[in-house]
Task: structure prediction
Amino acid sequence: MSLHDQTSPSLLPMIKRSVIATIIAFFLFLPTLGLKTTASGGVDGLFLTYRWLLLGIGCGFIFVIRMAYELFWAPKDGDQKPAKTQSALAKTLGSAKIAKSVGPLLLAFAIVFPFLPFSDRYILDLGILIITYVMLGWGLQIVVGLAGLLDLGYVAFYAVGAYSYALLSIHFGFGFWMCLPLAGLLAATWGIVLGFPVLRLRGDYLAIVTLAFGEIIRVILLNWRGFTGGSNGLSSIPRPSFFGLPFNQEPGGFAATFGLEYSSMQRIVFLYFLILALAVFTFFVTARLRRLPIGRAWEALREDEIACRSLGINTVNTKLSAFAIGAMFGGFAGSFFAAKQAFVSPESFNFMESATILAIVVLGGMSSQLGVVFSAIAMVGGVELLRQLQFLKVIFGNDFDPSQLRLLLFGLAMVLMMLWRPRGLVSTRMPTVFLKDKKTVSAAMISQGRG
Amino acid sequence: MANMSNPLLAVRGVETFYGRNQALFGIDIDIHQGEIVTMIGANGAGKSTLMMAICGVNRAVRGSVTFDGKAIHEMPTHEIIRLGISQSPEGRRIFPRMTVYENLQMGAVNSDPKYFAEDLARIYALFPILEKRHVQRAGTLSGGEQQMLAIGRALMARPKLLLLDEPSLGLAPLVAKQIFDTLRELNKTEGLTVFLVEQNAYHALRLASRGYVMVNGRITLSGTGAELLNHPEVGAAYLGGGSH
Result:
């Protein structure tokens, strides 16, 4: 069969499908792109302005994308489906071997990263942000990925950690290293406080309660003015020092002690290594926990709670420990966040943060620690990348702010994920114990399992 | 021979409820050391409910359950299990995304790790297919293999009493027979005490030393396996007039 025979008869339906997609897009875009309300200065209130050009560009964009999809990516009847699965399987097995060396390579890169020539303050700040999210992702992964408890209010523990550090250091003058374990402990306590009422809940119901919990913490922070400063937040939080040496220009400071010239970068580099150390700590603890009986009990709990009970696992303790340990890492990260910013306010702990962290875990493949790293880079780095797309102003007008497309990026990432990697970026799960030789269980086999 | 005066598990006058509906009415059961006891009954008769009452999942509102001389009907489930009752729950309930080996390891979660290798070897000897599939995800096993895994997992805890809830459910007759044969073997060689809840009455009664028949939450008949097999009521209601 020649190529011509295969393609030309189906060109018409392709165009038809593309036109249908464009029509659907037209109606979706009509209110979002086509109409704009502008407030007039006077009493008349709002004016409706029409943006037909923008609407046309949007629809044209969809048509082109859909046509490209139909022509190049859409599955054709002649495709050999089994062969494709085979190669995907082989690829995942291969990639699992590579994954073994990717982790150390990433760590090595992360260590030399601040000393690379292109690492200016902005890049380092971004690095710190990404690593913070990686750490949060690993913490939430215990709750969501391992124990299977969908937690939409994880940011609450991040907030508890941040406010713990802020309040303890402001009121009692505790240093960062003293506050860190305390913040972790307090967050873990809140994890248990949340855990108790939701012991009997699963799935959607659990998600709703945790979502509410996250909001409760935020609302309390917002309204308990005397204690938390309300919406003004808490400022002038002491910054962490290098073993007692502050990062300033004073004679007793870090730069003076080591005979270096003072630079504000020293503090950033220190913060970078601080969060890197915390993240590496989180990694090793969580990786170790997975291999301990408690880690397997979490996984078993995710798989089947009744079976767990019939094996004599104390499901109450298992659930609470998942909540507590997950929350503890959130608390650590929050404590670091407060130390880095020297300012905390409830605004930093809204639902969007919870959603971002959850998206990182889901996108990363639920139970893969490496996957979290990649998805954190994609999600956080992606948002930053949007901010760089200022040239789009040429097309969309001067009041266009690319960073507002953040949610669009979320949606796009999720749609692409569902299309190509429905089990997450890194979907192989290494068995936590091995008898003779290591074997990974590929994504293709996971999908056959229940759940 | 078993000690008839002092049963390993004694269920006395147990009554349970689902909300307001009473499911069990004054159930009395004895299981002695080294016995295989079976409970047969139709769907919804209350067999699994009794199993859950023994394990403390759905608690007995009235009555008592004594295991090995201890009253267990008020203990939390995980403590009951730790006393030496192992359960293979209805519908197998293996952990589908964990490997066969990890599933077996979960079975040994409360036992002394020094016996682990020995116990594992024992389970692999009983069910060689599990050893062949030890790195395979349990959800990819066939129904019979999953049942073997569920029983193997329960045995990993070194139970004094093994509770099996419908091990032949959804299995091909040949596979079910293989599983019953293994249970007989275990009982003969290791003196394992088994309490078996079954709808597959013919095989269960042939295997069991004693049996009970449950109808609508009440025990209506009891006797040795052979007695029940030949009992006209049992034959009519559960055996369908012939062997399966």
